[in-house]
Each structure stands twice: as structure tokens, then as C-alpha cells.
Amino acid sequence: MSYININNLTKDYGKGRGNFDVNLTIEKGEVFGFAGINGAGKTTLIRQLMGFLKPSSGYATINHLNCWEHSAEIKKLIGYIPGEIAFPDAPTGTEFLRRQAELVGLTDMSYAEALIKKLQLDPTANLKRMSKGMKQKTAIVAAMMHDPNILIFDEPTTGLDPLMRVAFIDIMKDEIKKGKTIFMSSHMWDEMEAVCNRVALIKDGKIVAVQSVKEVKHNKNKVYHICFRSEVDYERFQAESLVFGEKFNDELKLAIHIKDKDVRDLFKIMKNYDVKSFVEFKLSLEENFKKMYD
């Protein structure tokens, strides 16, 4: 069942800036990643989902509620981490979290305490004097402590060190087990590869590709790197009826593009050559999207 629907959504700031005719459907319980360079339109789209911006045309719905017309109601369903954190005036992180809990009607702070422990956050620190990483941790706790069914995150690990990014991924995996619906933008490809079901790539405000992470990881179109022991075999092999990719003449190595069903035929051909190494070259999610982006 679709949970988040984005239909021909456009926010036109002029001079090619904004979002243009964006169409996406996110299923209930799906983790959907949103990728693109700075200025591509990620935050603009997320702000429209949150009801902070009125679309120029088109519309978005969450749980069948229009994001602009029912923004107050939708915000009660969502845990949100903004791309730019601007905390209200509160003396400490603890006081800020207490006030946020009151706003959402949260009385049991046990999950908040568990998140604080996992993120190694000291909420008693002065809110305004916190480091970027500490502020980000506080924002994560504030977004998730009331255990909402929908999470919308705009670059959620900005400012976190590598160990805390790992902790965040672990937290996300726990949320996924609960069946949460998650929409997150990120510039960290390994994060999206670790938790997302699908990832959309946005360029100049338009969606240029949507990919299943599973299909990228288990692509039926394979690339193998074959290295030969002799230059004679290296040159002779290139006369075979195969699809060749990049060649590394100094190493007597080349790339072969082949479908899974044809690999056995490749093995038969290779029996006639003195092969030094044969290694599958797997495209990561980042490399796959970079090819599309370029």
C-alpha cells in the first residue's frame, strides 16, 4: 500500500531552481533514499512533504492527507530531521527534549534515553554551545523519541563521526524491523546502500532515475576483470566475440561485460588461455548512479 505519493510536484523558484514534475510513490514500510548533489532540489522536495512550502503545481500526500492542506495533522505522524538545524531558545539539550516531548504528548522517555545512550549524547550540555555533531544527535533523538510511524530525514548524519554513523545505521535497522516508512536524503552512499529499498537520483530538480538497491547489488549484467600471464594471450583474447570494457595494457588486464546466463560460455573460452586472475567487478550504488548522472 502506497504511503507517500508525490504527483507532478513542482516548486519553481525561477532560473531553473526548484523541483519540476516530480513523481514518486513510497510504499508503507519502505525505506526510500533520495540522492543528488547540493542544490539539486532534495531539501525543497522534503520541505514540501513537511508542508513548509506550497507547491507551484502538483501535490504530495502522506497517508492520503495532502501535505500542504493538512500539514499540522501530518506533522503529528512524522519524525523529522531538517537539513539545517536551528534550535529554539532552551538552556540545555535536556530541556529542549522535554519541551519537544510535551509538544507530541510523550510522557515515557525510556526510548529517548535508549537513543541518547546509543548515540553517546550528553543532553545536559548548553544547547547553543553544542558542536555540530552533538546538535545532530539531539535532533535525531527529538525526531525519533516518540516512535512515529513515518521518518523524514534530510541529511541525518551530517556532522557525525564515522563511529556515530555506524550507530545511526544500527538505529535505522531497528526502526526498519518495526515496519517504519522512511524517506531520507543523504550524500552518504554507503548509508543508503545499507538501509534503503530504493533510491531516487535528482538532478536539476528532476528525477532522472529510481533504482532498487537489491537489483544494483545483484545485477544480472556482470563485469569481470581478466588478467593474462602473457601478452600473446592478452592480444589473442581480444579477438573473441565478447563485449569488452576498460583495458589495462600495462597489467595485461581487461574488463568483460556479460550476462549471468552467458558466464559458462565465457569459462569455456577461457580454457584456451593462460589466465592469471579472474575477478568480478561489482558496481556500488554510488558508482551505478554516477554513471547515470554523467
Structural write-up:
The protein has 294 residues and is an alpha/beta fold. It has two domains: 215 residues, Rossmann fold (3-Layer(aba) Sandwich), CATH 3.40.50.300; 75 residues, Malonyl-CoA ACP transacylase, ACP-binding (Alpha-Beta Plaits, 2-Layer Sandwich). 33% of the residues lie in helices and 31% in strands. The chain contains eleven helices and 14 strands. The strands form three sheets. A six-stranded mixed beta sheet has the order 6-7-8-3-9-10, sandwiched between helices. It has a four-stranded antiparallel beta sheet with strand order 2-1-4-5. A four-stranded antiparallel beta sheet has the order 12-13-11-14. Helix 3 packs parallel to helix 5. The chain is elongated, with a radius of gyration of 24 Å.
CATH architecture of the largest domain: 3-Layer(aba) Sandwich
Query: Low-confidence spans: pLDDT under 50, at least 5 residues?
Result: none
Arithmetic mean of pLDDT: 91
CATH topology descriptor of the largest domain: Rossmann fold
Give the proportion of residues in helices: 25-40%
Task: Specify the structural class.
Answer: alpha/beta
The tally of domains stands at 2
Element-level helix/strand string: EEEHEEHEHHHEHEHEEHEHEEHEH
Query: Total helix count?
Result: 11
